[in-house]
Every structure is written in structure tokens, then in C-alpha cells.
Prior knowledge:
By secondary structure, the chain is of the alpha+beta class.
Amino acid sequence: MSKINVGGQAVIEGVMMRSPRAFAIAVRRPDGKIELSIRKWVSLWERLKFLRYPFFRGTVVLLETLFNGISALNFSAKVSMPEEGKEKKEQSDIAIIMTMVVAFAFGLLLFVALPHYLTIILSKLMGRELDVSSIMFHIVDGFIKIIIFLFYLYLISLMKDVKRVFMYHGSEHKSIFAYEHDEELSVENARKYTTHHPRCGTSFLLIVILVSILLFAIVFPFIPDFVSNKWLNNAVMVLIKMILMFPVAGISYEFLKFSSKYQENPILKLLIYPGLLLQRITTQPPTDDMLEVAIISILAVLREEQNPKDEARVLTFESLEDFKSRYLMMNGGSAEAVTKHQIVQ
């Protein structure tokens, strides 16, 4: 028997949590109440069984995380900023997918195309033009990716609203730690844990960059030039890199999954340490009311695992205690029973 695997994401004034069969978003409203959206979740790999296998599932997780993240951000913006939300309609699945495609394309341009061409330009300026088939090209390319990534994180961390999202990110990690340590999910128990979690998406993105350096350095020496024009040929190489990002995501996910399972191993501790360092930027200590929101979100998905319902619901609660007394106690349940509930993965 193993614990239900629960992961999450910080949103605007709230936290999204997902378990194998449930999806919840808890958001603090301007009036102090907490709005909870809870629905059944069916992963793509439940519909297409072969996607469950190693190296396929990483790409599925990445795409589903993007889809769920945009959906959760849309809901949280509507709840936390009701005046602005009046002018916005709820996004359809098609609209969310289109937003996801645009976001994914922007990410590929920023972290694949831009570093590639900057590597070419910088190597020319330094008087030693690097060929895409050389290992040094991909080392420089990877170094530029890391600089862009760090600069991007630093810039967004300066924004006031993003700082609060990072605090909710910290509350997500603390509540998951409390759950993973078999503690009752309360503000007091969650408060004592660190905000740095080895399975964090920030760590995943850093692993993706490092794996891409290694994979590109291995693959590209065997790829011939397709056209004589260098800039056009490099455009083809960038396209190949973009396609290779799917196996890169698959490999990175397997490493993250493996390292979280054996995180006490000294070698793996060393390998995941840079990702934990990055979380000093992307997570901040949360307030108690933020922990309340995260705990409601995680308890909601655990409750749904125990008593699944097909219909989607949006409920409002005064506080964590109100949530526990009204939502968890339905049909004879309890907070302790929900927290301790386990399934075979």
C-alpha cells in the first residue's frame, strides 16, 4: 500500500491540487471566504494506456500540467478579482488549449530558439564559431538557457502579485509535506515544514534544461546538415530541438520521480540540490490563512478519492474548520480518515 500521489500548483490567491482521480482549486475571496472548485479528473493515460509507460508519461504530465494550470489560473482570477472577472467569461476547453499552445510556443522560443541563436552570435563575436554538432555548442547553449531562466524568475519575483503566488506556492509545499509525513492536516502541523520540495515544478524545469544539454550533445553530432544555407539549416536544427523536448520531458520526469523516491541517497541529494536552491526564489514562507487554503485544497482531493462524484461543484466556506465540519463530515467521513486514506499506486 502506498499513499495517494498528490501534487499541486499555486494560483492567484489560492492553490490547485490534483490527485489521480480528483482536481481541486481553493481560492481566498476578497471578503475572506474560501471558494472551492472540485471535480473528477481522468488523466489522458487512463484513456490511452500506453501513455502510462515510462518516458511517455512525462510528456503527458507536462501537457496536463499546462492545461490544468491555465484552467486553475482562470478560475482563481475570477474568484480573487470579481470586479475584473465580471467582464470575463469562463474559458472553454478549446480556449484553454489555445492559450496552452501559445504559452508552450512562447516557452519553446524563449528556451530553445533564443539560446540556440545567441550561442551562434556569441561564438562568432568571440572569434570561434561553434558548430551545432560540437559538444561545446550545447554546453554554451545550456548555460545561456540557465541564465535566461534565472533572469526570468528574478524579474517576475519583483512583481507584488507574483510574490503572493510564491507564498501560496510555499503553502502548497508545506501542506503536502504534512500529508506525506502522515500528520493531521492542520495549520499548526503544516507550518513547521520547509517550503522546498524535491518534486517541485521549479526543480523539474531545471532538470529539463540539464537533460536537454546532455541529450542534444549526444544526438546532434549524428544529424547531418539539411541545406547549405547556415541560417536556414540552423532553423531546421531548432525545429529538431523543439521536437526533442518531448523525450527530454519524459526523461526529466522519470529522473524527478526516481530522485523523489530515493531522496535520502547522497548522490541524488547532490543532484536535486540546485532545484531546491531555485525554490528560494519561487517559494516564500506563507501566512496561516494561506496554509488554510492549501489544506482545504489537498483535503478536498483526498476526500474525492475516498468518495468520488461525477459532477463538478463550486462551494464556499468561511474557514478551514467550516470546511472540515461541513464538507469532510458528509456521509460519516472525518478529517483523520481522509488524511490516512491510502490506495495502491
